[in-house]
Amino acid sequence: MKTKNNPLQRFNLKICLTAFVVLGAFVACKPTSQTEKAPPAVQEKVSLGAVFPLTGDTASYGQAAKKGIDLAVGEINKRGGIGGKTVEIIYEDDNGKAANAVSAMEKLISVNKVPLVMGSAGSSVTMAMCPIANREKVVLITPISSSKELTEKGGPFFFRVCPSDVVQAAMMAEWFREDGRKRAAVVFLNTSWGQGLKDEFVNRYKALGGEIVSIEACNEGDRDLRAQLTKAKASNPDALYGITQGREGGALLRQAKELGFDKPVYGADVWGSPELVETAQDAAKGVKIIVPAEYKGTKYQEFAKAFKQRYGEDPDTYAAFSYDMVMILSAALSKADTGDSLQKAMAETSYEGVTGVTKFDKNGDVVGKGFEQKILP
To answer: What number does CATH give the domain 166-292?
Structure first.
């Protein structure tokens, strides 16, 4: 016999079912584990610009700079970034061309809103970027460009961590004198860097009693320098000073050998590049060059070890300069973030890094860094 449904029982059943559904929904919304955490908030970033020749005839300089920069940024971010913000680098490839660098810098400032730009390699390229840096009050700093013209015309927002060519030119003139070279021929690159280094060398060499018997210019990208070499050979010098980029220098050395130019050849700092050796091949052996001095302190040894672990190769001088450049920027950015205040912080920054102590004079030139002699193997 069936029992009749009691209205009170039906009401209690509805309450129980409703409670069960609500409880189930509540349980479903709870984390499945007490150890689960909410996703971390997106970390803020500080974006910095970098304009270098990552391709083209001077790519080895841009690539060296990039490796030094990336190593430094990795270490800074591992320590918590700058003011708790992760550092990111926005790279632009100028291919060694001033017009490309100008476009890249305009884009970095207007679109990416960077407070500073690192770059470039060629002094004439960096020189083209300086007016923009000063107009927009954006710090521009280079680890490579060494022209004297940058000292004179770079402006208050320009800085560099590499030494000026004034030091290099004086050392080369004195090396000629020490080697007994009384008559010098010069082949120089017709750029801000080449002209400045040529002028400084000529003035210093003459002051030491030397005679300049031939001065010939060449242009970027020139691969046939036989005309310049023929004139230099006819002037009967004791030695030749080549002030060119690596590719042009390699062609000059190879063609000098072909033409029977048997006088000693000396070269500028950029003749230490892979591009020169690749182009000159065995004609580079014994060439005397001036290169930025390499610091050998404890910090440099630690840097060199970390660099080799990451890239499988030893760092060159420009990678070391670039590493220190980022560390200097980090120190300045921890005090100020943009404009006049950042420029002031940069001017007042002194940093002891892998290339020694870095501080700036009133022109943005690094103080206390120099060059050294080297003979190509």
So the answer is: 3.40.50.2300
pTM: 0.86
pLDDT, position 43 = 66
pLDDT in tens, 59-111: 999 999 999 999 999 999 999 999 999 999 999 999 999 999 999 999 999 99
Q: Quick one: fold of 45-163+295-369?
A: Rossmann fold (3.40.50)
Give residue-wise pLDDT tens across range 95-154: 999 999 999 999 999 999 999 999 999 999 999 999 999 999 999 999 999 999 999 999
Domains 45-163+295-369 and 166-292 share a fold: yes
Three-class secondary structure assignment of the chain: CCCCCCHHHHHHHHHHHHHHHHHHHHHHHCCCCCCCCCCCCCCCEEEEEEEECCCCCCHHHHHHHHHHHHHHHHHHHHCCCECCEEEEEEEEECCCCHHHHHHHHHHHHHCCCCCEEEECCCHHHHHHHHHHHHHHCCEEEECCCCCHHHHHHCCCCEEECCCCHHHHHHHHHHHHHHCCCCEEEEEEECCHHHHHHHHHHHHHHHHCCCEEEEEEEECCCCCCCHHHHHHHHHCCCCEEEEECCHHHHHHHHHHHHHCCCCCCEEECHHHHCHHHHHHHHHHHCCCEEEEECCCCCHHHHHHHHHHHHHHCCCCCHHHHHHHHHHHHHHHHHCCCCCHHHHHHHHHHCEEEECCEEEEECCCCCECCCCEEEEECC
- Where in the chain are the domains? 45-163+295-369, 166-292
